[in-house]
Amino acid sequence: MVVCVPTVRTEGDAVVQPAHSSFAGPRTRRRGGTGFRAGHRRDRTRATAGLACVLSIAVGALLSSPHLAQAGVGADQPFSGLERKDLANGKLVQRRIIEHRGERHMMGGTSWQVIDATPDVLWQALLDTSHFARMLPQVESARMVHNAGDKMRIFVRHRGTLVETSYFLDVKLAADHSRMTFRVDEASAKGIRAAWGYYSLRPYANGKTLLVYGVMADIGDGLVAMLLRSTVHEWLLKVPWMVKRFVEGSGRYIYKTRKT
Question: What is the pTM of this model?
Fold first, then answer.
């Protein structure tokens, strides 16, 4: 059995998470062939699938923290009835986009996730570099390099089985703690051409928060990018779901709502 990312089903503009939380892919059978050659083909198929899976997870990890200069990709249209229902039920809603800007081959979009935490608690979590590994895929280390209040510089390193990427994030914070934008410093980035994005925190019913995440990234034209572009695109927009899993789980008692 190949352990990989789950398949999602699309209904309208919303990408609906599977009901289960398992990341196990389906078991497949191959027909035809006997003896050594058939066995060899099966082993080679499993090895190739396993390699692709490892790469997909690793590359997805490398791209999970970029910045959007504009107001939001695909975020200007009202939610459909299905999207509103999914949000209320705690599901991740995604709208994907692909753009070509000169030599840049950008992909990303916007995703929304309702999280059972106040905006203040969520804001603290998003800036807590000591727990980036719980909110972003395969983060090996993250540290604050410079903090000037409304501007920060954060170093992040991701490490997978076969891929490693590191970069500096230039972060800008809104004074009312409702939005942050961040961009990968392309001059120092290793393993990614460009990426940028934002988080927006909106109060939701019953003390919850609607986390909005916009991202665009150019992962390059290498072999991994060509073979796994669709899988990487999927993981780019899953960050709010990972934040939810941490903040509602092991991170629930780490952060407290601050008195104003």
Answer: 0.69
